Amino acid sequence: MAPTGDDAERPEIETLRERAFDLADEGRIDEALDTWERALSASRSDLDLLFEAADFQVNVLRDLEDREILERGIEHARRGAKLARKAGDAERAAEFAWLEGTALGQLGHATEALARLAEAEQVFPDSLEVLSEKAFALYELSRLDEAREALLRAEAAGEEDAWVQHQLGLVAERQGEPGEAKRRFARALELSPDEFPAPIGLTHHAFDRAVEDALAALPEQVRRYLSNVAITVEEIPSDDDLLASDPPLSPTILGLFRGAPYGEKASMDPWSHFPSAIVLYQRNLERFARDREELTEEIGVTLLHEVGHFLGLDEDDLYARGLD
C-alpha cells in the first residue's frame, strides 16, 4: 500500500531540509531560505521542523547579522511556541522562547529578549545556551552585576565556553577590573582563537593615523560635512554615553554622535548646546577588526554611520541606506 499523508511527505521534507543546509554551505543563502519555506509548507504543524528552521535562521546564519533573516526566524519561533503550548509541550515551547529571545537580542531588543529568555529559564534553569543569551541581553542594558551572575551560572553549568569567558572579560572591563578582564579574554582566545583572536592593540598615535587614513578615504561630500564636526577617540563608552538613551546604548558601540543634527536649533537635549562631535571607541573598534586594513575600513564605516546621525537619520534610515 502506498504511503499517504505525513508519511508520504516525510521523504520530500528530509530531502528539502538536507538541501537547505547544502545550499547554505555553498553560500546560496536566499535559495536555502526558500528551500526551508518549501519544507515548512509541506508540514506546517511539524514542531521539529519549525524548530530546525528557526534555529537555522537564528543560530546557523548568526554570523550574517541579517535583520530580515532574524525576523523570519522570530516568526517561526513564535508560531512554534504557540503550537507547542497548544499541544501541552512545555519543553518545546521553552526552546522556541529561547530562539526568539536569542534573535531579539541580536536585533538589539534586549528588554524583549529578556522576557522570552525568562520563559526558557523557567524550564531550563541550568542551560548554558539560555544563561549566556540572558547575560548578553543584560550586558547590552548595562545591568552588569546581573550579567556577571548569569555568566558565572553559565560557567558552572557545563563545559567551559569561549563565549562565556569573553563576555565575562567584557563585564570585568566595564566594571574597572583590568586584570580579571585580561585573564578572561586570554582564556577565550585559548579556547577559540578563530572566534576570539587577540585585538590589534594599536598605540594611541597609531590609532590616530588609522583615523586619518579612514578620513582620507571617505568621499569628498562626506568630508565636507565633517569639516565642522570634532572627531575624538576614547577607549570605551562611559556609563553616561550609554545610559543617556532609553533603552541604553550597547556597550559594544563603535562610535557615537554628540550634538544637534545638522540644521536643527538648540533644544532641550543637553548635547545640543555643545559643538557637534563624533566619538570613536578605540578598544571596541580594535576588537571588531581582524587586521589594520579592516580596522581602517571599519573606522570609515563608523564615521559614515555617525555622519548619518549628524544629518538626522535614525537607525532604520541608516539600515535602509546600508549604513547600519
Explain how this protein is built.
There is one protein chain. The chain starts with a helix and ends with a helix. A 3-stranded mixed β-sheet has the order 1-3-2. The chain has helices spanning 5-25, 29-42, 47-60, 67-86, 90-106, 110-123, 128-140, 144-157, 162-174, 178-191, 204-217, 220-226, 239-243, 282-288, 292-310, 315-320, and strands at 230-234, 255-258, 277-281. Helices cover 65% and strands 4% of the residues. The protein is built from 16 helices and 3 strands. It is mostly helical and 324 residues long.
Short account of what is shown:
With 324 residues, this protein is mostly helical. Helix content is 65%, strand content 4%.
Ordered list of secondary-structure elements with their pairings:
Elements: H1 5-25, H2 29-42, H3 47-60, H4 67-86, H5 90-106, H6 110-123, H7 128-140, H8 144-157, H9 162-174, H10 178-191, H11 204-217, H12 220-226, E1 230-234, H13 239-243, E2 255-258, E3 277-281, H14 282-288, H15 292-310, H16 315-320
Parallel strand pairs: 1-3
Antiparallel strand pairs: 2-3
Topology as H/E string?
A: HHHHHHHHHHHHEHEEHHH
**Biggest sheet overview:** 3 strands, mixed
Q: Roughly how many Å is the radius of gyration?
A: 22 Å
Taking strands numbered 1, 2, ... along the chain, how are they ordered across the largest sheet? 1-3-2
Strand content: under 5%
**So what's the overall shape?**
globular
**Mean pLDDT rating:** 89
Q: Helical segment tally?
A: 16
Q: How many β-strand runs? A: 3
- List segments where confidence is low: pLDDT < 50 over at least 5 consecutive residues: 1-8
Helix content: 55-70%
The structural class is mainly alpha
Separation, N- and C-terminal Cα atoms: 57 Å
